[in-house]
């Protein structure tokens, strides 16, 4: 199983970035897909979730600014991030949870760094 995240970088406040996460080795269409982030000195936190059933949820801090989407034909999940703030600076990770679920069925990408700074 491999999750490859990309799209991070340095952006000015108010700018946008689009993260991508390509998955292989899993049945992507039945996977619940997540984006998490971890800022320096802080715990990892969930950013957005897109379940295999089509349910989407966002953390309060990003609601209205970030959009999660997925393309099952390409085995890829995206995170469109708009109106970025310095507080969004973090390493962003994609995560896939697959049936029958549980820690041994949860897979992580390597992370991509997003830095929001002027």
How would you describe this structure to a colleague?
The protein has 118 residues and is mainly beta. It is built from no helices and eleven strands. A hairpin with an 8-residue loop joins strand 9 (90-97) and strand 10. It is globular and about 45 Å long.
The chain-level structural class is: mainly beta
Mean pLDDT: 97
Distance between the termini: 37 Å
Residue stretches low in confidence (pLDDT < 50, at least 5 long) are none
Computed CA radius of gyration, to the nearest angstrom: 14 Å
Residues in helices, as a percent range = under 10%
Order of helices and strands: EEEEEEEEEEE
Largest sheet: 7 strands, mixed
List the total number of helices: 0
Short description:
The protein is mostly beta strands and 118 residues long.
How is this fold's topology laid out?
Elements: E1 2-6, E2 9-11, E3 17-24, E4 32-38, E5 45-50, E6 56-58, E7 66-71, E8 76-81, E9 90-97, E10 106-108, E11 112-116
Task: Please describe the structure with a list of short key phrases separated by commas or semicolons.
single chain; 118 residues; mainly beta; seven-stranded mixed beta sheet
């Amino acid at each position: 199983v491999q999750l490859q995240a990309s799209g991070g970088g340095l952006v000015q406040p108010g700018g946008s970035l689009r993260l991508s996460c390509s998955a292989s080795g899993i049945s992507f269409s039945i996977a619940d897909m997540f984006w998490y982030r971890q800022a320096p000195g802080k715990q990892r936190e969930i950013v957005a979730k897109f379940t295999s059933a089509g349910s989407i949820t966002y953390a309060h801090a990003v609601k209205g600014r970030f959009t999660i989407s997925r393309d099952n034909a390409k085995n890829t999940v995206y995170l469109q991030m708009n109106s970025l703030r310095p507080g969004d600076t973090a390493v962003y990770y994609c995560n896939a949870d697959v049936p029958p679920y549980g820690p041994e069925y949860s897979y992580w990408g390597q992370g991509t760094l997003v830095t929001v700074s002027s």
